Amino acid sequence: MxxxxxxxxxxxxxxxxxxxxxxxxxxxxxxxxxDPQHPTxxxxxxxxxxxxxxxxxxxxxxxxxxxxxxxxxEGKFVAISWDEALDTIAARLKGIADPQAxxxxxxxxxxxxxxxxxxxxxxxxKLGASRLDRTIxxxxxxxxxxxxxxxxxxxxxxxxxxxxxxxxxxxNPIASNLHFWMRAQEARRRGATLIAIDPxxxxxxxxxxxxxxxxxxxxxxxxxxxMHVLIAEDLLDHDYIARHxxxxxxxKQRVHEWPPxxxxxxxxxxxxxxxxxxxxxxxxARSGQAVAIRTNYGVQRAHGGGMxxxxxxxxxxxxxxxxxxxxxxxxxxxxxxxxNSAVLERPDLMPAKTPRTINMSTIGDDLLRPASxxxxxxxxxLIVYNSNPVAIAPHSGRVAQGFAREDLFTVxxxxxxxxxxxxxxxxxxxxxxxxxxxxxxxxxHQYMMANNAAIAPLxxxxxxxxxxxxxxxxxxxxxxxxxxxxxxxxAQAFDTTQPRAMHFDWEALKQKGWQKVALAEAxxxxxxxxxxxxxxEFYCARMLADGLDPLPTYIAPYESxxxxxxxxxxxxxxxxxxxxxxxxxxxxxxxxxxRATEGEPHLDIHPHDAAPxxxxxxDMLRIFNDRGSFEAKARVTDKARPGLVVGLSVWWKxxxxxxxxxxxxxxxxxxxxxxxxxxxxxxxxxxxxxxGAKAVPAHLI
Length: 701
Description:
The protein is of the alpha/beta class. Helix content is 28%, strand content 17%.
């Protein structure tokens, strides 16, 4: 009997990017556990990934290529050979006159640099296909952060336990950033104060010292109010401001317009909360102790989401928080890694005229758009990998309508027959993380990570990179880069010639599993921000050049009672749909043990909103607006603030009782910067899901 322990990496879209130890007995993976020696994983895994073998050996794994035999969306397929599948795909792609009518659609089903965007990017660049603007998660916040601080660099997760005050802003780390939460808990044991800023009293907010339940999409205003108080009460680090910031005098004039009373009205909170939060932040910093902010992507999923992150990112420089290793702010640490994108993705393979770009967040409209001089050719072929757009993209009804086009040739690389796979013409079985080689950066810590294949591929499953390597052969692509192995690609993943570079050796990395990128513990203690000025830019000329307000401001939601009173008369409740604890986006929804723990789709609604609608605990509800509707079971609770309903997501639609999920009502409108989706900028009405039910008249709400 053979026994081995293989070093691997969690591939999913989570900041923690955990180091895994996979136990293999006679070629079968029997357990997955966290590496106790990895400083951030510390031997601890989330509930989802601790059951990774259940996912890998799931009875519903796709293990052979499939060809559709029913109508699109029915999910009826027959098994075919790899040769037939590849020949069919190549023939269809070659038959498309304008390669821009071909679109890849992918995101973070795996975060690996090999199985994510390497061979696939090379394939589509050589093909001359339309480019995909991958905006679905983080681009709004990343834009606001980079305008202000220059790059996605911030407080190291390994320092947070030494902070005296931690603001957890738009984040629920118990569900989505477990190892940060472990550090925050250690800080609390050492005497730190934890404050959650979130419209919803999440699992995390319940365990913090204070919860500030502001209205969705108003975070930018709260940050402006904090800046107003810090400046008005002189809770500032004048030396740091003078040496390491740009535009303080302009900022001072701007935030003078944002007293606590005005901010409180916009945010739906008390003015005293604004005052006390700012004073605690400023006074703690003035006492010489570290103040830290962990903000996350929930903040940026509204019209002004990029500006909200920008405003929050201004706060540490005002009080000199960056002087401390445990101070500052973290949104993402992805900027510490010098990824060798030019070598991995080979953009030089593109035709001389750069193909058009299509935003993944508007795929519903894009698939239904006819050919035009402005837009270009109609999309004729779609290749989906590492994503499940029919479930996760906004305005889901439009997305499904687009995928249902009989003249659209769709290929899906998948582990399971997802909502999206049901619409495919050809389905190709992909390997899971335990079955292939990969290399990873992270965005919640500073470690490069190596993933070794623990077991042989199950059935006929093949790694993403191998699938695109085979498709390149069928298309006749002869460049040497299409013959590179996964090991060869991984060995080129990081560019050690770039600024903030690191020593990197792939063979050594595979043996140890991980290696930390060298970066100062307090990266901005002496300024040195990677902005054009080298300073934290309160005033940003790049924003002005890009048609944006160069100073922090507030941009109201598209849909709120204050910004759109006519719409709010019909749809008076704001809705957000943050991640459910037992799912990761739409991954793991089909793992029975996790779905059983999560229960069924439910909607949290405050008693004040439930009472006039005669809604009781456990009632089946219909949640709707002009875009669509879905059903969920009522949980009457004050976890949702008045005027807000919360539907934890993202459910596979086919596994929900009505075949729908929260994205039926979300919008394809985009953020102020970064062209990102506005998932949390939504107004709805809620009623009991009874036969012949009518909407509740607005005057009764």
